[in-house]
Amino acid sequence: MYLGAHVSISKGLAAAVQTAVDIGANTMQFFTRNPRGGSAKELDDRDIDKARRLLNIHQFGPLVAHAPYTYNLASAKPEVREFSIRTIKEDLLRIKAMQTPYLVLHVGSHGGQGEEAGLLLVVQGLQEILPTIPEDVNILIEIMAGSGTELGYTFEQIQKIMAACADHPQLGLCLDSSHLTGAGYNLADLSKVKTEIEKTVGLARVKAMHLNDSVFPVGSRRDRHAKIGEGYLGLEIVKALVCDENFRKIPIILETPNDEDGHAAEIALIKGLIRDC
Ligand SMILES: [Zn+2]
Ligand SMILES: [Zn+2]
């Protein structure tokens, strides 16, 4: 299986891969650029070559990039939508150069316009982006907890977006166990949640998963990640997720509130759970 954590690429891609290796990971997630800002560092071919060597030596699985929180395709403000579309297009080119097949994207927040109006803008944005998407990279829409005016907290909404984009083959789904819990999907009954995915987006579209425990209970519509085993999920549900056949070949990424040592301990803990699946 491919297990990793969110790491910083402030010191470059190769340094980030080395951090992932040091914590026992064989995949990782990073922000394409400053999560609160817009500018991105220029890519460094030597750094990328060094990273590629490390990824090969340590037999990494697919890497995951996460779009900054400043992007919002559902915004009522045209300048925010234009900025989001332009930078997503740039990010897709960047991650392709960075050996990374997946860009995780939040659907966005409608900010009071209403869900339907917001979803329409998201579709329009994606329809502008997808014709330019490079080969070998994919946009993964992340399921959200649905706090505030956040969109994308049901599989039905995500399916609608994909359908309006002609089920583009480079669109996928990123699960997040904390967001699912907030959104009202009870992972204690994993087979029921999987059936709901299969009936809508389809399990084959699940390309990555964020593994986080949840500070808030099922259906809270709130999003706060807890350390593994320290929230409403608990170790039994975490084990069911990492042992599930459908998720054995996708990158599983920890976004838990931890430093590197904390992530290393969680990775060791999860490897232990997997040993007796
Ligand atoms: Zn996210
Ligand atoms: Zn997440």
Question: What does it look like?
Answer:
- With 277 residues, the protein is of the alpha/beta class.
- It has one domain: Divalent-metal-dependent TIM barrel enzymes (TIM Barrel, Alpha-Beta Barrel).
- The protein has nine helices and ten strands.
- The chain has helices at 13-22, 45-57, 78-97, 115-129, 155-164, 177-183, 190-199, 234-243, 260-275; strands spanning 2-6, 27-31, 64-66, 102-106, 138-142, 171-176, 206-211, 213-214, 225-226, 251-254.
- An eight-stranded parallel β-barrel has the order 1-2-3-4-5-6-7-10, surrounded by four helices. The chain has a two-stranded antiparallel sheet with strand order 8-9.
- It is globular, with a radius of gyration of 18 Å.
- The mean pLDDT is 96.
- One zinc ion binds at residues 142, 176, 210, 255.
